[in-house]
Amino acid sequence: MDKWNLWVIIQILIVLIVGVAVFSWLGIVIKYLKNQPESLLRNISSISLIQGNTLIGSNPVSIQSYSDIELPIFEGNTLISQTLPFHPKAQIYATLINCLAQKESSNNPLAIGKDGERGLLQYMQPIFYSFCVEKYKFDNDIWDAEIQRECCARMIEDGYIRLWTTSKFCK
Known about the structure:
The chain is mainly alpha-helical. It has helices at residues 3-34, 38-44, 63-68, 89-92, 94-105, 125-135, 145-157; strands spanning 54-57, 78-81. 50% of the residues lie in helices and 5% in strands.
């Protein structure tokens, strides 16, 4: 067998190996897509994730959730979310809430006031239940400082800051 025939046979083998690899890869991709929820396929069906692209998402889902569903974002791509990241409301009003906690209980989450107020922000039980539990759907745990902070932030946002008489000392 001469060199030319050997060269042709090697070229044919390379084409066959590459063809098998490509078709195997396509089979894996198709199998992956068939196993995805229809809603996901509807959202990504028109997206081409080619190396070096920037994907700007308008879906209000955190970036972490994309990795949770194993969306294949290849190296070199960038995902930019158009929605703001989630921050608990207590972080937005942190300075004001910290001031209220200092004035109300000296930052003591176990404080009990002279009229029966409880916790870090000195909630009366009926106020805590009406706002925090009923209106804002927090757990009924008046001693939980984080629930008190989050509830306070919601109340501030809704205009109920006046319920804390010490708020006039906090700006």
